[in-house]
């Protein structure tokens, strides 16, 4: 599969339920996450569980589809800003659903896609958007491990690694 994408936004939150803060650059640390993020600090909702979510990604195309009410079934329609979806990185042109088990570059870093993310009901309450849980089913992003750390910035290319 040939593709190339772009990193649009970087967001972190210091703890569960805190507002996401947009960064102009971020330091990714293997085995830990993004410096300053709740999972790096061990204060995320899923921090105590054995789960790979050092970095989470979501496609801007998903946000656009939700805003347009696509797919028509369930027909959910809402406007989500990049800071609303609770994922760290917002991408464009990256087929996240096809990357599970694969490695890819984000700027100077290398990520390994661990598993697709599942939405939680709590996001509806947090954002006050009924139906958001169903609207995010099967397109709630990707959980990744950091294999090679470094600094990333919006505008960085996201590229597949052919192994």
From TrEMBL:
<dbReference type="GO" id="GO:0030170">
    <property type="term" value="F:pyridoxal phosphate binding"/>
</dbReference>
<dbReference type="GO" id="GO:0003824">
    <property type="term" value="F:catalytic activity"/>
</dbReference>
<dbReference type="InterPro" id="IPR005302">
    <property type="entry name" value="MoCF_Sase_C"/>
</dbReference>
<protein>
    <recommendedName>
        <fullName>MOSC domain-containing protein</fullName>
    </recommendedName>
</protein>
<dbReference type="GO" id="GO:0030151">
    <property type="term" value="F:molybdenum ion binding"/>
</dbReference>
<dbReference type="InterPro" id="IPR011037">
    <property type="entry name" value="Pyrv_Knase-like_insert_dom_sf"/>
</dbReference>
<feature type="domain" description="MOSC">
    <location>
        <begin position="21"/>
        <end position="161"/>
    </location>
</feature>
<dbReference type="InterPro" id="IPR052716">
    <property type="entry name" value="MOSC_domain"/>
</dbReference>
<dbReference type="Pfam" id="PF03473">
    <property type="entry name" value="MOSC"/>
</dbReference>
């Amino acid at each position: 599969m040939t593709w190339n994408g772009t990193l649009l936004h970087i967001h972190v939150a210091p703890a569960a339920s805190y507002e996401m803060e947009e960064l102009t650059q971020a330091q990714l640390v293997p085995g830990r996450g993004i410096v300053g993020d709740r999972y790096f600090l061990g204060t995320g909702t899923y921090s105590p569980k054995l789960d790979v979510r050092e970095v989470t990604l979501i496609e801007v195309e998903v946000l656009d589809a939700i805003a347009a009410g696509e797919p028509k079934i369930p027909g959910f329609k809402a406007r989500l800003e990049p800071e609303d979806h609770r994922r760290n990185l917002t991408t464009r042109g990256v087929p996240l659903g096809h990357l599970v088990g694969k490695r890819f570059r984000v700027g100077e870093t290398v990520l390994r896609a661990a598993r697709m993310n599942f939405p939680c009901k709590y996001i509806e309450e947090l954002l006050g958007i009924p139906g958001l849980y169903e609207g995010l089913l099967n397109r709630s992003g990707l959980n990744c491990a950091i294999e090679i750390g470094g600094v990333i910035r919006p505008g960085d290319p996201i590229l597949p690694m052919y192994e």
